[in-house]
Structure formats: structure tokens, C-alpha cells
Amino acid sequence: MGYAVYDTDSEAKRLIATDTAVREALIRLLGEETYSPDGTYQTAYVASQVFQDKQLLAALNGIVHPAVRRDVELWAARETMRTHRPVFLESAILFESGFDSLCHRIVLITAPEEIRLSRVMRRDQTDIDKVRARIHAQMNDTELSRRADLTIVNDGSQTIEQLCQYITLHL
Fold this sequence. Notes:
Blueprint: E1 4-7, H1 8-18, H2 20-30, H3 43-50, H4 54-83, E2 87-90, H5 94-97, E3 107-110, H6 113-124, H7 128-136, H8 141-147, E4 150-153, H9 160-170
Helix pairs in contact: 1-4, 2-4, 6-7
């Protein structure tokens, strides 16, 4: 529909790859193995460390989330001035990151766990146990629905256009 969307996952990956302060803090936290010799972020290594240790995950989030927040605030101001239209923030961990405080309205788009598992495995080319660990590290759907202004189940029974129209009508 032409709205600007900030994808926090993609932008966090960009900042992890390009922001020197983020890189240095992550290396201090998790060691030199966090980046390969050519500078590539080692997602599998980091995930194996932080999803086994809640304190490490919190420390990683304490590095990445503030960098993303600064970036999204600058982006939103720039896009709003440029387009004079609302902007959207996409985040799997909106409440855990505190990014909900940046939002005027919150739409939860969810799907049954089996569908989410399949979609993420296909998208990330990863196995079911790793995807389950990520999902279970996030807030559950009951709590998310309680906090959202609108909840939509995206189980594949509606087109993107239908979902967008529903959101537009209900917000």
C-alpha cells in the first residue's frame, strides 16, 4: 500500500554488520568468534551461545536494541517528514525490546505455531529445533494479543490485500 516499513530484524542485522560500536561491544561480550576473519557476523555461533544463557541474551539485546532504537527513531522522523504519512515498525519482539513505546497502534499478526515453524524453516534454511528455541524465547501469543490493539491470524486463508484492508478498517 506504499507505506514505509522499518523491519527491525533486517535493520538489526545491518547494524550488527556495519556499526563499529555494536561490533566492538558484541566481541567484548561473546569473543572474537562473533565475527569471522573476513568480518561476517557468525549468527549460528551467537545463537548457540545466547539461546542457552538468558543473561547473555539480555546482554546482547542490551547492545543491539538501543542501536536499533536510535536508528528507527531517525528513520521514522525522516520518513514522516518526507511522506507525511504514517510509518510502520515490524518487530517479532516489539514488547521485549521496548519498541512498543514508539508505536501509536499495535497490530499483532500471528499464525498457528506449525505454520510459523514451517515458514521460518523455509525462509532461514534452518532446522525445527532452532526455530522452536527462537519462538519460545519470545512472548507468547496470549500476552501479545492482550497488549495489541488488533490481532490478525495470518494462516494463509486471506490474501495480503485482504489483511491490509482489514487492518485499515479496524485502526
